[in-house]
UniProtKB/TrEMBL annotation:
Protein name: 2'-5' RNA ligase family protein
Gene3D superfamilies, sorted: Cyclic phosphodiesterase
Source organism per UniProt: Deinococcus rhizophilus
Length: 226
């Protein structure tokens, strides 16, 4: 598997605009303002090691995973992203509903899980398929084995990820990997934090990048929905 700390990587995410209450709350929780490229102090109930995995990404909901690519391919990636978004019908909006806090990975990963509307699910599927040709390596290369479900093996072979499509679980990662001793208290804080944001609407998607040798991600481009 490629070293996730090395190499150029791209991803397509939903990311609320700077100043949006959801964005500001999430940036404070993660300890990183990805749009400004600045660290923020973590809340008192979290330690730096509790956000070691989630923090460097900033606030985001994944449409296309953080794949490795060749920097020479950036113009093609951006053009393909814009072409895909342009295929949505005029007036289409990307809506998330049914928000709730879920705990995954044996208590290590805490997420704000939501449900996607039809235009968002279609866009996720289209982008995952069309951007796969720009992938030079996958962070999931060692996650799929001959004993993995056939659908995961097929996705990996075609799309470089075992996840997504009809198994997609839209979510904002809130805390990862949590190792503290107060999960009940953490849940109460996260449920209060996310309660105002259980329904969200987006009119743009964000192309993220992580540059060779850098720890944190950044926003490279924003593409609006017509």
């Amino acid at each position: 598997m490629p070293d996730p700390r090395r190499g150029t990587r791209f991803a397509v995410y939903l990311c609320p605009p700077a100043g949006d209450p959801c964005y500001e709350a999430g940036s404070d929780l993660l300890g990183y303002d990805v749009r400004a490229g600045r660290a923020r102090p973590l809340p008192e109930f979290l330690r730096p090691e509790d956000q070691a995995d989630a923090g460097p990404y900033g606030v985001h909901l994944t449409l296309v995973e953080g794949f490795f690519t060749d920097p020479a391919l950036w113009p093609g990636i951006e053009a393909e992203l814009r072409a895909c978004v342009a295929c949505l019908s005029p007036g289409a909006v990307l809506t998330l509903t049914g928000g709730r806090v879920e705990v995954w990975d044996g208590g290590e990963t805490w997420v704000h899980r939501l449900e996607a509307n039809a235009p968002l699910l279609v866009l996720h599927t289209l982008l995952l398929a069309r951007l796969s040709r720009f992938v030079t390596a996958s962070p999931f290369a060692d996650k799929v084995t001959p004993t993995s479900p056939a659908s995961e093996q097929a996705r990996m072979a075609l799309l470089h990820t075992p996840r997504g499509l009809d198994s997609w679980q839209p979510h904002f990662t809130l805390v990862q990997p949590y190792g503290g001793g107060d999960p009940a208290g953490l849940r109460a804080r996260l449920e209060a934090l996310t309660a105002p944001h259980h329904t969200q609407t987006f009119r743009s998607v964000a192309l993220f990048e992580k540059r060779e040798g850098e720890e944190r991600w950044r926003v490279r481009a924003e593409v609006g929905v017509a």
